[in-house]
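During the reporting period, our protein records have gained a structure token line. A sample record is set out beneath this paragraph:
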Amino acid sequence: MINYITQNEFIDTFKKIRPDNFSYEGLEVLFEHLEMLEDDLDKQIEFDVIAICCDYSEYENAQELLNDYSGYETIEEIEDNTLIFSFKKHGNNYNSYIIQAF
């Protein structure tokens, strides 16, 4: 049994269960990605906050991301191995990132 959830319900649920895992803007990016993934797979994805937190991480900036993946010198090298979504948070002039774990 699967329920359709809106972007607002998605964000609200994350903010209640795992408030520190993703920013509001990061959750918008993640929701859009998961909806497109459902369309591409032609299959509904179970909404499991904990599983999503295990599969995806948010990084405030490029340096933070590269520090976590110290074997890589550039974001492009990491992109060769996994999905990375770049976005700007409101008021920032630099990119933040959502990365799928690999």
Residues 24-41 form the longest helix (18 residues). The mean pLDDT is 94. Residues 7-15+22-39+46-100 form one domain.
